[in-house]
Design brief:
The complex is a heterodimer. Chain A has three domains: 3-283, no CATH class; 298-411, no CATH class; 420-478, Arc Repressor Mutant, subunit A, CATH 1.10.10.410. Chain A is 40% helix and 21% strand. Chain A is built from 16 helices and 17 strands. Chain A has helices spanning 54-66, 163-179, 220-240, 268-271, 286-294, 300-309, 315-321, 325-338, 341-358, 370-381, 387-399, 405-411, 420-433, 435-442, 446-459, 466-478; strands spanning 3-14, 52-53, 70-71, 74-75, 78-81, 91-94, 101-110, 113-126, 130-136, 139-143, 150-156, 192-202, 212-215, 248-253, 258-264, 274-275, 282-283. In chain A, a hairpin with a 2-residue loop joins strand 7 and strand 8. Chain B has a domain at 3-39. By secondary structure, chain B is α+β, with helices and mostly antiparallel strands. A two-stranded antiparallel ribbon of chain B has the order 2-3. The chains are: A alpha+beta, B alpha+beta. The A-B interface holds A 17-19, 24-27, 33-40, 43, 45, 51-57, 74, 76, 81, 84-85, 97-98, 131-133, 135-144, 269-270, 272, 275, 279-283 and B 8-9, 12-13, 49, 51-52, 56-66, 68-69, 71, 74-75, 80, 82-92.
């Protein structure tokens, strides 16, 4: 018998806000001491009242609109009973009855073509703290730095049917949310986490099989492996009766390549959701809604088409630039200054992206001012700075985004010299020091000229128009 | 509300109810269900959903970070701390 896998995803995304969702503690505690970013509110002290961070609602709305959702203009927070030491209040403040966004659609593309994945809802909620179990044998140590860091949970309908589709869906979510600048979405950093709900049924059946929820996958590759393993486990159980399938939550062990039962899956009733009496409804008026709608970015595929149609870039260049909103913004600003799209694309793709790769930075981490890049390109194309030194200036702009390329070139001796007297002096020194290369060139060896040219350029620290140098060099040799 | 559901809620809420209390609760919910049946006869498809009983909205704050509280002050009442962590009995095997 043929089977089909039915998959729905619950994706948690950490929002890129400065402060937590209900208090003004910092939301960024990487490398901080335990409990260094906490206050009575996020520690669940009795009597403390939450105050909603406006930017969390902004980002919740933005995410909803990027995923083609309907925005609930009155959205409410609820308490989800959750008795575990990583949430000190013994409940999580989340959204259940009126989440910020519902009924969306995300289009994905796989080897089988295009497909729409329905979004059930996006809700805003607080993250839990961190538990450390390996300091002492009898004790769990609790760190509340992460408690109340804002999350959105994106719940899809069970519209996915393979690991390939799941990968395409997650990549699409990442792209859309990064373009909207609401989240980093880096699974390796824990800013995007994914739980997979999976069941298996005979192909063509309209009845869903027994569902397992899988947790603890830390990369898209791990998710794909977990889906393949779990699908095989379900089919084996159905066909061979190797085990009785139960609705449960399972933990994926990527090293062993196996999933293990954690607990019988809770249902909504187990969480005893109820409206949070401490947070009144958030009402999104027209002005607020319109301002968020107006702030949405152009979608990557729309930008891609515009870059080829409007700027005449190749499909490859447009594809590369639209890998990140930071690259796009840098490109567009630089183009405004220098007006040469191909030149800007080359500088970003060949130089800036290489520097990012060498420094192990993501494309979204590009912090070079596009206007300054445009000015740098003007300096190089105008012959005022050599390309070699232009690259050095760009590298310095990565270290300090406030660098003015012209001033930096001036103060570091990178401005191309028009002093032919200096060039002639250097040429004379170089050819006097290597009579063999001179005679080789005179004997027809073109390579010998390149060697002399390179040494002259080095002496001049690259600050010389290559054509001028070449002419002076050949004239000097011929005059011998 | 069935007796099984009530037993589950009793467990979840860590309550211990007498049989008499359970009977009272079940009778209470049976009455409410009858009232709901009456309410369900109304067509509310064109009625805007009510999310709160009062016409009240929350205040929101700007996304600004303030100084954190002194950890020592927050942990003053804790039964046990260790190197800045709160300590609880071990929760995993």
């Amino acid at each position: 018998m043929k089977y089909e896998t039915v998959i729905g995803l619950e994706v948690h995304v950490e929002l890129a806000t400065k402060s937590k969702i209900f208090c003004s503690c910092s939301a960024h505690s990487y490398g901080a001491d335990p409990n260094a970013h906490v206050c009575p509110a996020c520690c669940g002290m009795p009597g403390m009242l939450p105050v909603v961070n406006k930017r969390v609602v902004d980002y919740g709305m933005k995410a909803g609109l990027m995923l083609n959702c309907h925005i609930n203009r009155t959205t409410t927070f609820d308490k989800k009973s959750y008795y575990y030491p990583d949430l000190p209040a013994a409940y999580q403040t989340t959204q259940w009855f009126a989440p910020v966004a519902v009924n969306g659609l995300v289009e994905i593309e796989t080897s089988k073509g295009k497909k729409g994945v329905r979004i059930k809802q996006i809700h805003m909620e607080e993250d839990a703290g961190k538990l450390v179990h390996d300091i002492r044998e009898d004790t769990t140590h609790v760190d509340f730095n992460r408690t109340s860091v804002p999350l959105i949970e994106i719940v899809s309908q069970p519209d996915l049917s393979s690991a390939e589709e799941v990968e395409a869906y997650l990549e699409r979510l990442k792209t859309l949310l990064r373009f909207a600048k609401v989240a980093e979405c880096e699974m390796a950093h824990g800013t995007m986490r994914c739980d997979v709900n999976l069941s298996v049924r005979p192909e063509g059946s309209d009845k869903l099989g027994v569902r397992a929820e899988m947790k603890n996958m830390n990369s898209i590759e791990a998710i794909k492996r977990a889906i393949e393993y779990e699908t095989a486990r379900h089919i084996d159980a159905i066909e061979n009766g190797t085990e009785v399938l139960r609705q449960e939550t399972r933990r994926w062990d990527d090293i062993k390549g196996k999933s293990y039962a954690m607990r019988t899956k809770e249902t909504a009733g187990d969480y005893r959701y109820f409206p949070d009496p401490n947070v009144m409804p958030v009402v999104i008026d027209d002005e607020w809604f319109d301002s968020i709608k107006a702030s949405l970015p152009e979608l990557p595929e729309v930008k891609r088409a515009r870059y080829t149609d409007e700027y005449g870039l190749s499909d490859y260049d447009a594809e590369q630039l639209t890998k990140s909103i930071a690259l796009c913004e840098c490109f567009e600003k630089a183009y405004e200054v220098c007006g040469n799209a191909k030149d800007v694309a080359n500088w970003i793709i060949s130089e800036a992206m290489s520097i990012l790769n060498v420094r192990k930075m993501t494309y979204d981490m590009l912090d070079v001012d596009g206007k300054a890049l445009g000015e740098l390109i003007n300096l190089v194309s105008g012959g005022k700075v050599s390309r070699v030194n232009g690259k050095k200036i760009l590298s310095a702009m990565f270290d300090d985004p406030h660098i003015d390329p012209a001033k930096y070139a001036e103060s570091n001796g990178y401005v191309v010299s028009n002093d032919t007297g200096l060039i002639e002096k250097v040429v004379a020194q170089v050819i006097a020091g290597d009579p063999k290369a001179v005679s080789d060139f005179k004997g027809g060896k073109e390579k010998a000229l390149m060697s002399l040219f390179g040494r002259c350029m080095k002496e001049l620290k690259g600050n010389c128009d290559p054509q001028v140098l070449r002419t002076i060099l050949i004239d000097a040799i011929n005059a011998l | 509300m069935e007796r099984d559901m009530l037993r589950k809620l009793e467990l979840l809420n860590q309550l211990r109810l007498t049989e008499e209390q359970k009977d009272d609760i079940l009778a209470f919910f049976a009455d409410r269900e009858k009232e709901m049946e009456t309410l369900e006869k109304f067509d509310t498809s064109a009625t805007e959903r009510m999310v709160h009983v009062m016409p009240i909205t929350t205040v929101v704050r700007e996304d600004v970070v303030s100084q954190p509280f002194a950890r020592e002050d927050l942990q003053r009442g804790a039964p046990e701390t260790d190197e800045g962590y709160w300590c609880v009995p071990r929760v995993v095997e």
